[in-house]
Write a structure and sequence with these properties.
heterodimer, A: Alpha-Beta Plaits, 3-stranded antiparallel beta sheet, 13% strand, elongated, B: alpha/beta, Ubiquitin-like (UB roll), 5 domains, 7-stranded mixed beta sheet, 26 helices, 28% helix
Chain lengths: 187, 793
């Protein structure tokens, strides 16, 4: 009977916890927001006129300790460009089977093209589906952006984009994007 | 001390003692400070310094402190002297500060666009900015900018913003290649590399400037933005394009070759290679055959499994036994050519084998067997460099063996060499090596050779085109013996020299052994595990005879490997021969008109996907390993071994190790060699008004099979023009810059005429550029008479 006081104390703890706030999350029915700087799925950002910030420099791939990133650069065509300047990322893949979410890639990115979102639902039922292509990673076209490929804003050079002078797509860029879209549908 | 004293004592007068960073060093007189420091393990930062270029001290990065001198001095331009006391950045604050200052100046106008620059990751400027530069720039006003990039040629791009004015590219172009298309223009902050607006940088060696550029100012169109150094796996390889035998570095990513660079090899290509070797590798991915194909009874070609295709091939060869010819393309590795040589003798029981898919003659095969086979090392690159007298016969070094050209030019720049060329005119390449041309009509070579005053102990280099005119090779041998000169044969293709050694000729067995010698046959038979009597003793048919026999129905089957129909001396005749036989087996890497005709088409491995050896013109083996390992492509030797097995012969597995082992057991042949040819030369053809003698050779960059798919490179080809002398043009009422039609009974070529100083009654056109396709359009060779008349636009 010497254990009785100890037992009472244990039951007491259980009893008291019934009145505490529940910490169990009802995932996936209820989704709790992550911390603001949570390392989730990557995103390839755009300039305000829709051009891609990625220049295909591969520094992210170089920095990656898990060898999860594969990039191939290519030369921009004047008029049909994907990014300001000479070079853009033609192929961009992140393998989420390998990614450890360390964020060294976004630190390495010289143009702030690569950032991380808070999206954490990265599970799937096949390996290939977990290799995210450029299309899966690109930021959406927001209002004021024109879908590349199109040219840079008239009289602007690449440096103006990095200096933050671009505020949105110009009428010419919208027109070019429209022409490209129609060409694509015609073909 | 005593161990090395012998060496030291003999050289003491040429040795000096000096102090670098407090350490006493002894170096040969004339050693530059930067080299001496390098040898003791101290790396002085530098950009303009290059061991193969003359010092210039243009970039000022290598400043060091020298005791007794008021200011820091460039270590790349000052030789060490006796008792000199040098302090590098390792021990001297003055040197360190001077270097930091120079780096700051260099970076003032540098755009720092490393993320988009192809040099990023392997850039001396990037690296040395980390070691000798400051972390943050103090320069916050606008940088000098230039439009970028500008095209120096279709292959080479220039970004002037990135340039640090080291002048490596301009010095290379002038000192080494002799093509000073680019030059430093302007002065001060505006200094820039420039080029004439109407003359692109169409040098055969332009790619080297990209490799030696210490920043990303010069880049190539074909490698633009394709990868980063950390992506690439680098392997040492040998160039498969010509008989120079350059060492290359092949960089590949995900099983695709991204670029190729010159790999330093002091005995052969030094630090350089040519643009063909550097850029022409797209063919590796173009129209590749991956699956064996078999022609069924209804005439369609269908994909087949390897075992079925092999059995089918074996059956076809069995049916035609003794009536099979083997035609090779001159591009095979030593090991593969050897496998064909063995296969022809044992499995096909014939000597009808020839690798010369180009202009050739019976005289040439005697020459190859008697003079070339087993003559490794007669003349080497080093011999060329220190030669006194060199005679070139039917050989254009720059077009046909560019590294030979660079060596001759190096010797010519030193000034002690005397080069005489027997050629129809002084080409740009010959001009650059200060050659003296004995203007000769094609066909007159032998006569001219015999009449020429040739110095004793010369070096005679004869090109493969000597086979075009009867008697030339006989005359060359005669002259070489008379003057006690060293004679070397320089073919164009990488595999030809090796094919001679392994006996891929109708009159030759491996190791310079004539087929007619019974002791030679028994020696070879012993290695092959057969009796000497099992090897056919009658010399076989050569290239032309095989084709003729096929057309006449004397041959029933052909085995064709590594060969392009358009390279044949007469593509039409070869096509007819293929049509005339019952059974054709092709082994090749690409699908082409030939493989589509084949009864069995077997895919084999290109050089990147197998190990092998090329023998360069010196006779020097240039082995290389397999670069790309993940494909399942088979070597020619392996495929032949499978066919042999299906025929009931045991060749073994024929791995590369086995083949090399077998090849090494041949040793040298001590018996009678083939008899040297003594063919009487005829005079050159007679011409009248309206006719001229054709002269032609392949330019280095042309429309050859291995250069397909490389548009940037093709853009740097030489202009396609016909050459004629003023008199020949006037006689035929032709004018400079006008079109001329060159024709014979077969066809015609329309081409722009450029009148130059050359031998009369001769018209020269390139062999295989654009419309000027001598073989397929005219079926003619050097020395033939063609009709010339005025063309219209």
């Amino acid at each position: 009977m010497a254990e009785l006081p100890q037992m009472m104390r244990a039951f007491g703890t259980t009893f008291l916890s019934m009145f505490r706030k529940v910490t169990t999350e009802q995932y996936p029915e209820e989704k709790v927001p992550t911390q603001a700087r949570f390392h989730g799925r990557h995103q390839l950002n755009r300039h305000p006129d829709g051009l891609e910030k990625c220049v295909g420099c591969e520094l992210c791939a170089w920095a990656c300790p898990a060898d999860a990133i594969y990039v191939e650069g290519a030369s921009n065509d004047e008029g049909d460009r994907f990014s300001p300047g000479e070079r853009y990322g033609r192929v961009y893949q992140i393998n989420y089977l390998r990614c450890i979410g360390c964020g060294l890639c976004i630190e390495a990115c010289p143009t702030r093209a690569l950032t991380m979102t808070n999206e954490y639902e990265l599970a799937d039922n096949s390996r290939t589906k977990l290799i995210y292509e450029k299309d899966d990673l690109l930021a959406p076209i927001l209002p004021g952006m024109a879908q590349p490929p199109h040219s840079m804003i008239d009289d602007y050079v690449a440096q103006d984009y990095y200096d933050g002078k671009v505020k949105g797509a110009s009428a010419e860029q919208f027109a070019e994007a429209e022409i490209y879209k129609q060409k694509g549908q015609g073909a | 001390m005593t161990l090395t004293s012998d060496n030291k004592q003999t050289n003491t007068e040429n040795q000096i003692t000096a102090t670098i960073d407090g350490i006493q060093v002894q170096v040969p007189k004339g050693t530059l400070i930067i080299r001496a420091a390098e040898r003791m393990g101290t790396f002085v930062p530098r950009f303009c310094d290059h061991p193969s270029l003359a010092p210039v001290a243009a970039c000022r990065m290598c400043l060091v402190e020298i005791e007794g001198m008021p200011k820091p001095q460039p270590s790349c331009a000052i030789p060490l002297t006796e008792g000199m006391v040098v302090k590098t950045q390792m021990t001297s604050e003055v040197a360190e500060k001077a270097q930091a200052g120079v780096m700051e100046f260099l970076l003032i106008n540098h755009p720092l666009d490393c993320p988009v620059c192809d040099k990023g990751g392997e850039c001396p400027l990037q690296n040395q900015a980390m070691t000798a530069g400051r972390a943050e720039s103090r320069f916050d006003i606008e940088k000098r900018t230039f439009p970028k990039p500008i095209e120096l040629s279709t292959e080479i791009l220039l970004d002037r913003e990135r340039c640090v004015e080291c002048a490596r590219c301009t010095r290379f172009s002038e000192e080494i290649a002799g093509d000073p298309f680019i030059e430093l223009l302007e002065r001060g902050a505006k200094q820039q590399v420039g080029i004439a607006t109407d003359e692109p940088f169409n040098s055969y060696f332009s790619g080297n400037t990209v490799q030696i550029c210490p920043v990303g100012a010069l880049t190539s169109s074909s490698y633009r933005f394709r990868s980063r150094p950390f992506d690439l796996v680098s392997v040492p390889t040998t160039c498969e394009h010509c008989a120079s035998g350059c060492s290359l570095r092949t960089d590949y990513r995900r099983e695709t070759v991204m670029r190729r660079l010159a790999w330093e090899d002091p005995a052969v290509n030094e630090d350089w290679n040519c643009d063909k070797g550097r850029f022409a590798f797209s063919y590796l991915k173009t129209n590749r055959l991956t699956q064996p194909k078999v022609r069924t009874k209804d005439g369609n070609q269908v994909d087949a499994l390897w075992p079925d295709a092999i059995d089918f091939a074996a059956k076809g060869l069995k049916d035609a036994k003794g009536k099979v010819g083997v035609l090779l393309g001159g591009r095979l590795t030593l090991e593969d050519a050897y496998a064909y040589s063995k296969f022809a003798r044992l499995a096909l029981e014939t000597n009808d084998i020839d690798f010369r898919n180009r202009v050739n003659s019976a005289e040439e095969q005697d020459f190859l067997g008697s003079v070339v086979a087993g003559s490794a090392g007669t003349v080497t690159y080093a011999d060329l460099e220190k030669a006194q007298n060199v005679l070139l016969v039917n050989f254009e070094p720059e077009e046909e063996s560019p590294i030979v050209f660079l060596r001759l030019r190096k010797a010519a720049e030193k000034g002690q060499i005397n080069i005489i060329a027997i050629a129809p005119y002084l080409s740009r390449g010959l001009e650059k090596i200060n050659a003296e041309v004995v203007a000769t009509k094609p066909g007159d070579e032998a006569k001219v050779l015999r009449g020429l005053e040739i110095a004793q102990d010369s070096i005679i280099l004869v090109g493969e085109r000597a086979a075009a005119t009867e008697g030339t090779l006989s005359a060359v041998i005669e002259v070489a013996e008379k003057t006690n000169s060293k004679l070397s044969w320089i073919p164009r293709r990488a595999g030809e020299r090796g094919a001679v050694e392994v006996g891929a000729l109708p009159n030759l067995l491996p190791g310079a052994r004539p087929v007619t010698e019974s002791s030679a046959r028994s020696e070879v038979g012993a290695i092959w595990g057969v009796n000497g009597s099992d090897i056919p003793s009658k010399p076989g048919r050569n290239h032309a005879e095989i084709i003729q026999a096929a057309i006449n129905g004397e041959l029933k089957a052909l085995v064709i490997a590594g060969l392009d129909v358009l390279d044949a001396p007469d593509p039409q005749a070869l096509g007819l021969a293929i049509n005339s036989v019952d059974f054709v087996i092709t082994l090749g890497i690409q699908e082409n008109s030939l493989t589509r005709y084949a009864n069995v088409s077997l895919p084999v491995a290109p050089v990147t996907e197998k190990s092998g050896t090329f023998i360069n013109w010196e006779g020097r083996p240039r082995p290389f390993g397999r670069a790309i390992t993940s494909t399942n492509a088979l070597t020619d030797a392996r495929v032949l071994a499978m066919i042999a097995e299906s025929l009931g012969l045991d060749f073994g597995l024929q791995t590369i190790e086995e083949l090399r082992q077998e090849l090494s057991s041949f040793g040298s042949w001590n018996g009678n060699k083939l008899v040297k040819p003594t063919v009487t030369a005829k005079d050159s053809a007679k011409t009248s008004v309206g006719n001229a003698i054709l002269s032609t050779w392949n330019l280095l960059l042309d429309d050859g099979a291995l250069q397909k798919g490389e548009e940037h490179l093709a853009g740097t080809q030489r202009p396609v023009v016909a050459h004629m002398s003023e008199k020949t043009a006037t006689d035929n009422k032709l004018e400079n810059e006008e079109k001329v039609i060159i024709s014979n009974s077969r066809g015609s070529i329309t081409i722009k005429l450029e009148i130059i100083e050359m031998v009369n009654d001769v018209v020269w056109i390139p062999s295989n550029n654009h419309d000027s396709k001598v073989k397929s359009k005219l079926g003619a060779k050097e020395g033939d008479v063609v009709t010339i008349k005025k063309g219209s636009f």
